[in-house]
Amino acid sequence: MKKLAILPLLFLGVGAFAQMDDAARYAGIIRTSELQKHLNIIAGDDMEGRETGTRGQRKAAAYIENFFKTTGLASPAPLKGYQQLYPLYQDSMVSSSFKLNGKEAIYGTDYISPVNNNETIKASAKSIVFAGYGIDDPNYNDYSGLDVKGKVVVFFLGEPKKDGKYFIDTKSARGSAWTFPGLSKKLELAMQKGAKGAIVISPSTESFTTRAADGAKKTNVYYPRANSNAKKINYVQVSHAYAGSLLGDRFSAALAKAKSNSSFEAADHFEQKAKTAFAYKKYRTTVNASNVLGVIEGTDKKDEFVFITAHYDHIGISSNGQINNGADDDGSGTVSVMQIGEAFAKAKAEGKGPRRTVVIMTVSGEEKGLWGSEYYSDHPVYPLEKTTVDLNIDMIGRVDTERMKDDTLNYVYVVGHDKLSSDLPVINEAMNNKYTGLVLDYKFDDPNDPNRIYFRSDHYNFARKGVPVLFFYDGMLKSDYHKPGDKVEKIYFALMEKRARMVFHTAWEMANREEMLKRDIPLSTATR
User: Fold this and answer.
1) What is the pLDDT, as a whole number, of residue 181?
2) Buried b (16+ CB within 10 A) or exposed e, 429-461
3) Considering the chain, what is the average pLDDT of its residues?
4) What does the pLDDT look like over 151-166, one tens digit per residue?
5) Which residues face 83 on adjacent strands?
6) What distance in Å separates the CA atoms of residue 172 and residue 180, rounded to the nearest whole number?
7) pTM for the whole structure
8) Judging by DSSP bridges, how do beta strands 387-393 and 270-296 pair with one another?
C-alpha cells in the first residue's frame, strides 16, 4: 500500500519537472544563497564603498570580470577584454596670481581661484565693468548698454526675484539656469561678450575659511564632457572686504541688493579704470574608471542585443571614516545581473542559449552623474539601433519605507513602461504574471512625480538615444539611502531573488521573440 501510494507521487514529480519550461529551469539558477554570497563581497568593507575612480571601484570591477570569466560569459570582441575604460580628470592648482593696479592680492584672504573653472592662462585688462548678476536673458538683462570687450566683468552670484519669487524661470522654485549651473553659464556668457576675465562676489560668502581656500586648489575626479576643454575666461572670487576696496562706495548698496535678490537697474551698472592681471597654472591627472561587460552570444539573431545593466559603484568612505557599503544601492542590482548572466550562460552551454545576444553590463560613475552609462551610450560597443532594450536594475533588495500597503514583500517599482515602446508593459506584465506574480507599481512614471526617477539611473542614457528601457527599483529613498546603514543584513533576499527572476524572464522573452521591440512612442523632450 505504501509503495502504491508513493509511486504516483514520484511520477507526478517527474512529470511536473518535465513540464517546467526552459525559462523557469534557468531562472532557478538565480537563488538567495548565491546572491547573498556575492553581495557579502561586493558590499563588504574590502571594497571601501566602491567610489568611482578609487581602488575600491577597481577591486569590484576585477571581481565582476572574474565572475564573468568563470561562469562562461565572453568578453566583447571590440574591447579585447571585459572592461570598457573611460577617462576621468582631476585638476590641481600649481600657482595663482591676481593683481589689481599692480598690487598682489592675497590668496585665501582677498580671493580664491577655484581650479574647476580656471585654466592655465595669463590675462590682463585696463578696466572693470560691474554687471549686476551677469545675466543676459529675455526676462532680465544686466548687459544692456554695457561693453565688456577686452575688460574684466564683475558680478554677483545668484539671480533676481520679484515679490519673493524667481521670475526668469517661473516654473522653477529653485531658480533658473543662472543659479544652477549658474557660475559656469555666466562665465561662458562673459567670454562670448569678449571679457578678458571675471571677478565674482558671493552675497553669502564674506570671507574664506582655510578649508574653502585649500579645497579650491583641487577638484574631485570628474567626467570630461565635450565642453570640458572649451576655451574659458578665468575668474577670481573675492571677499567682501576686497570687493569693497575694488568698487568703493557703491559696494554696500550693491551687496544689499544681491542679498535680497533685488533687480539691478541700468543706473547700478558702471565701468571704472583698474588694471587687473590674472596668472594661473594647473596640473591635470587622468584616472581611468570602467564599465564591465559580459556577453552571451545569440544564435540566429546574434546581431541584435538585449542589455541588462546595474551600477556597481557607490559613494565610498565618509569624511568620518565610515564605509558606505551600498548593499542595496546598487550591490543588489550588481549581483542580480551577475546571476542573470550566469543563468543565460548556463542555458547557452546546454544548447538553450538566447536568439539575440545578451549583454550584462555593470557600470561605474552612476552616483557621480551617470558617467559610465553616458560614456557607453556615446561610445557604444554594439549598435544602439540594434539594441532592442535595456533592462536596468538599481536597488531591488529592500522595501520602500513610505509604502504603506499589504504587498510590501511582493512588489517592485517599474519605471519607463509607458515610454518609447508599447511592447514594454505587454511583455513585462505577461512574464511577471506567468512566472513571478509581483505587484508592478508604476508610481514613478507619473509625470508629476517630483523625484524624477526616470532620469536618475543608467537606463536614461540608453533612453536618450532612443533605446526602449525598463527600470526596476525598490523605492528606498528614505531610511538608509546613501548612508552607512545600507548594509547586507538589511536585504530581503527572498524578495530580491523574486525580483531578479522576474527581470530574467522578461529578458528571456525579449531575447527570444521574433521581433525587436517596437519604437513607436516619441522620445520625450525632457532632460535631466
Assistant:
1) 87
2) eebbeebbebebbeebbeeeeeeebbbbbbbbb
3) 93
4) 999 999 999 999 889 9
5) 292
6) 11
7) 0.86
8) unpaired
Q: Can you state the angle between helices 493-512 and 32-42, rounded to 10 degrees?
A: 100
How many residues are there in the chain?
Answer: 528
Strand partners, 364: none
**Ramachandran assignment for 178, one of left (phi > 0), alpha (psi -120 to 50 degrees), beta (any other):** alpha
Look at residue 16 and tell me whether its pLDDT is greater than 70.
Answer: no
> pLDDT tier at 289 (50, 70, 90 boundaries)?
very high
Q: Who's near 109: CB < 8 A, 6+ residues apart?
A: 207, 208, 239
- 132 within 8 A of 154, measured Cβ to Cβ: no
- The rounded Cα 134 to chain-centroid distance in angstroms is 29
Instruction: Give one DSSP letter per residue of 312-363, joined into a string.
Output: --B--B-TTS-B---IIIIIIHHHHHHHHHHHHHHHHHTT---SEEEEEEEE
Query: Using an 8 Å Cβ cutoff, are 379 and 354 in contact?
Result: no
Give the position of cell 538565480.
30
Of 128, 194, 187, 129, the closest CA to residue 157 belongs to 187
Amino acid 294: pLDDT: 98
For residue 178, the 8-state DSSP code is T
The whole-number pLDDT of residue 524 equals 78
Residue 387 pairs with which residues in a beta bridge?
A: 305
User: Does 14 score more than 70 pLDDT?
Assistant: no
φ, ψ of residue 489 in degrees (nearest 5): -65, -10
* Cα 487–chain centre separation: 21
* Rounded Cα gap, residues 42 and 472, in angstroms: 20
Which helix H or strand E contains 50, and what residues bound it? none
In the chain, the amino acid numbered 389 is V
In 3D, which of 20, 22, 34, 23 has the Cα closest to residue 337?
Answer: 34
Mean pLDDT of 84-107: 97
**In this structure, what are the phi and psi dihedrals at residue 54, rounded to the nearest 5 degrees?**
-115, 170
Residue type, 185: K
Question: Based on the number of CB atoms within 10 Å of its own CB, is 72 exposed (0-12), middle (13-18) or buried (19 or more)?
Answer: middle
Name the phi and psi angles at 269, rounded to 5.
-85, 145
CA–CA distance, 302 with 388 (Å, rounded to integer): 12
